[in-house]
Design a protein that fits this description.
- Belongs to the bacterial solute-binding protein 1 family.
- There is one protein chain.
- It is built from 24 helices and twelve strands.
- It is α/β, with parallel strands linked by helices.
- The strands form three sheets. Strands 1, 2, 3, 4, 7 and 12 form a six-stranded mixed sheet that branches.
- The chain is globular and about 65 Å long.
- It starts with 7 loop residues before the first helix and ends with a helix.
Length: 506
């Protein structure tokens, strides 16, 4: 299809609405989005049609430690009250920071008189609403939640926040401190063609987690390498399987992006990549086959329900005491220390596993960055079509300020965007066992600074990571096809992906 005769953004909005109404399948939605040049990070693609789990502690709202700083309230009165009676709108999926902001927005509204409407909807509806808004330059929404893979598409529709801060000194929040944002997150999530499209807002990322009591019981040192991890899970499974515990737990559901995430991490740790510099699929080369074969071995040392589990099922395996070692999303950790958790205080954070030397960026394609830790981030963007842009800008600064982002981290249990949040006394005080724990965040910061990976940046990737790759991997792991041969599985995937990339002219 050519978009010369049919407006691209109208097409995107129409397709997103069709999927939201379930008039088309997820597979068709992905294909049409790819045709329009719109992708999704693998993390976000897995949320299509679903809501993201929240494992923070909203019970902290209203406590003394969560009270707004008096100087912030005064600034909001001084600067924001001139916009009293204004209403601003923001649409987002249920990210932890959005959920928390929706709960504490009265702290902004009371001193400013600015009403804030937060629409929390599934990701495909976020895309439909944002696309329709920019296509017609409607200004219905003042702020946009943007998955990292949408940044290029919406770059021309947002205001550079750093530049606006300089251009509007009368509205500038004192001490906002742009250098306080994690540099890897700014560069990896928010920048496009030299422009800052939005402010980093969310960064779920992989880390290693282990049951210290189980490792101590069996005299196992915390694994640091893939080989050590493999030996450890085999030993634990052999010793504990009769008690209902396995060495690890996986998010290996056939056809779901979660399986794709596990697989890509295995490929990277084996020294491989998803694509080569020639833009050909490389999952079927020697490194790719080695990584997949090892994952098959891991599956033998995981609860059988791993083959039907996404991240939610994996978390439940950890929380119910069914596994002892997992490399997965950092957002799990606060839930494991929850008030009613059966494993409170037993799980510990650690650096991601080290495998073989990583494949150099010069040998991979489509902007892929092989590394030790998967991630799926987003940014908050200020609409250039907003009818209340200054009021929205005041809110955006408040929402992304040091104090609010730190409190959102404490309440929401997610990784901070700001460096100061990692060292804030309130965060350090919660680095103990218990609800709302932050005892994993020191490790998370190290991972962001050193081990953050990026999947291919291409519109077809969302489809591949939800269809061709995990569907065929599922057939291999469940014995439906390929006779247990990882090479046959990967060759099948390679043929399909290389043909699709060629057809798309990428």
């Amino acid at each position: 299809m050519s978009f010369k005769d049919y407006d691209k953004k109208t097409f995107i909005a129409d397709v997103a609405r069709d999927f939201a109404a379930r008039r088309i399948s997820k597979r068709d939605f992905m294909k049409k989005m790819a045709l329009a040049g719109v992708g999704f990070s693998a993390f976000s693609a897995g949320l299509l049609g679903n809501q993201r789990g929240f494992r923070g502690n909203l019970g902290l709202i209203g406590t003394e430690a969560m009270a707004q700083d008096a100087s912030t309230t005064q600034w909001l009165k001084d600067v924001g009250s001139k916009f009293k009676g204004t209403k601003i709108r923001y649409t987002s999926e249920a990210t932890p920071p959005t959920v928390v902001l929706d709960q504490i927005k009265k702290e902004f509204t009371e001193p400013t008189g600015i009403e804030v409407e937060v629409e929390i909807v599934p990701l495909e509806q976020v895309l439909a609403k944002a696309t329709q808004d920019v296509q017609g330059q409607l200004g219905t929404y003042d702020l946009y939640y943007l998955d990292q893979s949408w940044v290029a598409t919406f770059a021309q529709d947002t205001i550079d926040p750093m530049q606006y801060y300089k251009d509007k000194p009368d509205l500038a929040m004192p001490g906002f401190d742009w250098d306080d944002f994690s540099k890897p997150l700014v560069e990896g999530l928010a920048m496009y063609d030299g422009k800052m499209v939005g402010i980093p807002f969310d960064i779920p990322i992989f880390m290693l987690m282990y049951r210290k009591d189980i490792l101590e019981k069996h005299g196992i040192a915390v694994p640091t390498t893939v080989d050590e991890f493999t030996a450890a899970i085999k030993k634990i499974t052999e010793a504990e399987k009769a008690n209902g515990m396995y060495g690890t737990g996986l998010q290996a559901k056939s056809g779901h992006y979660s399986l794709n995430c596990d697989w890509t991490q295995m490929v990277w740790n084996a020294g491989g990549s998803i694509f080569g510099a020639d833009k050909k699929f490389k999952g079927n080369d020697a490194a790719g086959i080695e990584g997949l074969a090892l994952y098959q071995e891991w599956a033998k040392n995981a609860p059988p329900e791993s083959l039907n589990s996404t991240w939610d099922g994996q978390f439940q395996m950890m929380a119910s005491g069914q596994c002892a070692l997992v490399q997965s999303w950092d957002e799990f950790f606060p839930g494991l220390d929850g008030k009613d958790s059966k494993v409170q205080g037993l799980w510990m954070p650690a650096k991601p596993l080290i495998g073989k030397d990583l494949r150099p960026k010069s040998e991979v394609g489509f902007g892929e960055v092989p590394n030790r830790a998967h991630q799926g981030g987003s940014v908050l963007g200020l609409s250039k079509y907003s009818k209340n842009v200054d009021a929205a800008w005041v809110f955006m600064q408040w929402a992304c300020s040091k104090d609010v982002m730190t409190r959102c981290t404490l309440i929401g249990g997610f990784a901070p965007m700001r460096l100061s949040s990692f060292t804030d006394p309130r965060v350090n005080e919660k680095a103990v066992v218990g609800p709302g724990t932050t005892r994993h965040l020191e490790m998370v910061k190290w991972i962001i600074d050193n081990d953050m990976a990026s999947e291919p940046d291409m519109p077809l990737w969302a489809g591949f990571s939800n269809n061709e790759i995990p569907v065929n991997l599922g057939k291999l792991l469940t014995g439906q096809d390929f006779g247990g041969d990882p090479k046959k599985c990967m060759d099948t995937i390679a043929a399909a992906i290389d043909a699709a990339v060629a057809d798309a002219g990428l």
